[in-house]
């Protein structure tokens, strides 16, 4: 399936765009997506951490993604 | 609860007014402002980027968690700024009202500490000679 | 430090403005207001009496002690009201600014807790059917 | 010596006046003054506590009072 992933902060700079269209297996897990992103953009490995959000909530590693999910890559937050 | 994300200057008095409650004798407020330095470097301004929908959702979660932990909480308000901020500008205001004061301190501190851990907002510090996304790298 | 005792309504925004400091990223504020009830009785208003000169002196001492305990404290402001107060009126405002937030919570809480122990101000709660000097009797 | 003692809050109500002129020995101690007040106004014994202030500072029990000292009786405070 094709996933559209929203990017913010330093993740946007690493990828060079505010969103990314990614080919990924159907029902890909969040952990699987993260591995795919890490290998495609090695600079992500240098971050303190990063997370994946689905539909405005933090997603667990074993969550299975669907094409209609709103997916975002969340680099270390620093609000406040 | 009163949760806002805005690209306009925060009206602190309005946030305080929103937690006023005749049953509450205590209001604690935390205001985060832009400092003129960070880890020894002189800061000239900050840029805050937010994932708006998720940021609001997460601030609501944090306020709801505080309400569960401190059932006597009367009112909770959180307003976070985004966009370009100058030195001295208010970046975030948290205000809570409770019947007694110890709870107001504890709940307010819990809320700001948790916001800083979970709310998808990113701060880029601009120096005279470069910029850094705060907390991005170890 | 900014220490005031007044028989006029407290201008909270002015107190907050007095602790603004470009080197401080954190402002914590405690606001004590008049509750509509106390120990189960409905309060209709409060009368605050102060030993003015000593109250100001003791508030200055408390602020100075906080400054010793938290040397990074940038600004401290305390304004206490006296006279007749109605429900919802602000009785006291404490505001502190520090570079980092944990210190702002700790210093502000220390100041209000200590003020309540040592500053010679007395609160008489007026109910529909009588009045009591708070804390006078065990 | 004659001491003028300022009274506040419930102490003012107990004595029935906002100040009190008291005959007391020269160089009376604060503890001695408190005993004198307790016996003259037994209702003071029912208070949670009370203290004596001299010149806007809390005075220790062994402080020796002088006629020019500004003396006040401080019942339990309840500001804030």
TrEMBL record, chains A, D:
Keywords: Nucleotide-binding. Pfam families: ThiS. The keyword Nucleotide-binding applies. Gene3D superfamilies: 3.10.20.30. The keyword Nucleotide-binding applies. PANTHER family: MOLYBDOPTERIN SYNTHASE SULFUR CARRIER SUBUNIT. Belongs to the MoaD family. This is Molybdopterin synthase sulfur carrier subunit. The lineage of its organism: Bacteria, Pseudomonadati, Bacteroidota, Cytophagia, Cytophagales.
From TrEMBL, chains B, C:
Signal peptide: none annotated. It catalyses: 2 [molybdopterin-synthase sulfur-carrier protein]-C-terminal-Gly-aminoethanethioate + cyclic pyranopterin phosphate + H2O = molybdopterin + 2 [molybdopterin-synthase sulfur-carrier protein]-C-terminal Gly-Gly + 2 H(+). Its EC number is 2.8.1.12. It is an enzyme of class 2 (transferase). Keywords: Molybdenum cofactor biosynthesis. Pathway: Cofactor biosynthesis; molybdopterin biosynthesis. InterPro entries: MoaE_sf, Mopterin_biosynth_MoaE. Heterotetramer of 2 MoaD subunits and 2 MoaE subunits. Also stable as homodimer. The enzyme changes between these two forms during catalysis. Belongs to the MoaE family. This is Molybdopterin synthase catalytic subunit. It comes from Hymenobacter nitidus.
């Amino acid at each position: 399936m094709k996933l559209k992933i929203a990017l913010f902060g330093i993740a946007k700079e690493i990828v060079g765009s505010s969103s990314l269209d990614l080919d990924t297996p159907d029902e890909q897990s969040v952990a699987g997506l993260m591995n795919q992103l890490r290998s495609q953009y090695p600079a992500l490995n240098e971050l303190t951490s990063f997370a994946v959000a689905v539909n405005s909530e933090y997603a667990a590693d074993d969550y299975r993604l669907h094409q209609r999910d709103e997916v975002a890559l969340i680099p270390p937050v620093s609000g406040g | 609860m009163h949760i806002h994300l805005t690209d306009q200057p925060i009206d602190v008095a309005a946030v305080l007014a929103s937690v006023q409650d005749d049953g509450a004798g205590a209001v604690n407020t935390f205001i985060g402002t832009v400092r003129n330095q960070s880890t020894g470097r002189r800061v000239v301004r900050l840029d805050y980027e937010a994932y708006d929908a998720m940021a609001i959702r997460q601030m609501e979660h944090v306020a709801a968690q505080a309400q569960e932990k401190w059932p006597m909480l009367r009112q909770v308000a959180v307003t976070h700024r985004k966009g370009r901020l100058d030195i001295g500008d208010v970046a975030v205001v948290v205000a809570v009202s409770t019947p007694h004061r110890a709870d107001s301190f504890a709940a307010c501190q819990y809320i700001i500490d948790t916001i800083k851990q979970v709310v998808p907002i990113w701060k880029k510090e601009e120096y005279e000679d470069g910029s850094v996304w705060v907390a991005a790298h170890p």
